[in-house]
Write a sequence for this structure.
């Protein structure tokens, strides 16, 4: 990837215009509805993020939040949710941004949201956020921030109990099973 090549080989940092153009293209790809585009662009965004300035990273996250709010109760937005999960670990130095991501993602797990987004949000929590929450708490041990991270982890864990008991149905049948499957995959991380 461009990010690894720059850091490993000592190549010059790509120009800001190239990074902005790449970010724009990947943001368009993550907005698509097909899983292949979403997965590939989310992975690419995670690799691009270390090359962006912290202010550009935060601006990008806020743009994704805005898109999600604009598409409330609509099936679009799965890509932004998964992208938030893939860049979460890149934002360890910006714990307030990480906390905002967790809060926002938890919001999209609610039963009032469409099932496609709910499944993406639970998957995001399980694969993109939970595995990296402990990494920041270790470096902050004994501080107020560590206690806040522990409280956030407990909140996320209690939500997973609810996800494991989701028996929502609609005309398609037991759509809650989609949430339960994602939650079951996260149990190993929580334990």
């Amino acid at each position: 990837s461009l990010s690894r090549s720059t850091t490993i080989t000592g190549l010059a940092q790509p120009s800001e215009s190239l990074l902005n153009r790449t970010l724009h293209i990947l943001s368009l790809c993550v907005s698509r509805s097909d899983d292949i585009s979403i997965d590939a662009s989310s992975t690419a965004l995670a690799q691009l993020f270390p090359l962006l300035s912290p202010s550009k990273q935060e601006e990008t996250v806020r743009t994704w939040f805005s898109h999600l709010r604009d598409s409330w109760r609509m099936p679009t937005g799965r890509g932004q949710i998964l992208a938030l999960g893939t860049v979460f670990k890149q934002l360890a130095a910006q714990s307030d941004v990480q906390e905002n991501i967790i809060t926002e993602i938890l919001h999209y797990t609610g039963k009032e949201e469409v099932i496609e987004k709910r499944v993406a949000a639970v998957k995001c929590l399980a694969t993109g956020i939970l595995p990296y929450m402990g990494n920041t708490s270790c470096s902050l041990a004994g501080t107020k921030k560590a206690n806040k991270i522990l409280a956030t982890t407990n909140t996320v864990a209690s939500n997973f109990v609810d996800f494991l008991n989701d028996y929502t149905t609609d005309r398609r049948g037991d759509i809650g099973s989609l949430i339960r499957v994602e939650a079951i995959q996260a149990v190993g991380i929580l334990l």
The first strand starts at residue 169 and ends at 170.
